[in-house]
Design brief:
Elements (H helix, E strand, L loop, with lengths): L1 E4 L6 H8 L9 E2 L2 E2 L14 E2 L10 E3 L24 E2 L6 E19 L9 E6 L6 H4 L6 E4 L8 E4 L8 E8 L9 E2 L1 E11 L20 H9 L5
Antiparallel strand pairs: 1-13, 2-3, 4-13, 5-7, 6-12, 7-10, 7-11, 7-13, 8-9, 8-11
Length: 234
Amino acid sequence: FVRSVSIEGMSACREEHHAHGGHSHGHSHGAGGCDGHDHDADPERGFEETLFPFIDLPQVTCLNESTEGAGQSCFRPWSERHDESKFVESDADEQLIFFIPFTGNVKLKSIIVITDNDESRPTVMKAYKNRDDVDFELAETLTPTQEWGLVEAGGDGLKYETRASQFQGLHSLTLFFPENAGGDTSKITYIGLVGTCDLVVRRTVIKLAEFAANPADHKTEADERTKSSVQPGY
């Protein structure tokens, strides 16, 4: 059966709202534009929460990272988003690919990206739903589920909204950052995923076979004595 799980106090949308002093910041960006609405009062989007607890973090991989495992550090609680010791930087060129598996069935509603506002800032993000085979060669020709142009932002980054109907039933997400603002390498300090998650709980049913006792299989000592005292033909 499927159990819907929510975590109190972990709505990234609400945390972002409070981080801006409680006012309606209205800076969520979809593909190519600003929607300009208050996330907390958006009935079309519904409830949102941070998906960090549902990321299978040990299985997250990042292609072209300069330090092994650094890509995983971009995924952390919202309260740790300003930890400058955690970031990923690309190696051979400016491109980065993240593979992000989940522990449940996810509906992704938005992505938050925090970077430095310099030439290392990625300027394009492409997302692929439920693909575990995306490398740099395939990413150049594969049509993404959605693509965004990334703009320069403040310390808390920007929230880029998805076409939520296209990001239901996610078991994994691949993010491709193909370009930056002109630097030799790209740098990302934080990636936040926002939406909802259903945890699939599998019940194992154990059937116990109860066998009735067969008297023939349990001969007693008295039965044996009776049998030996009876002689055929008498």
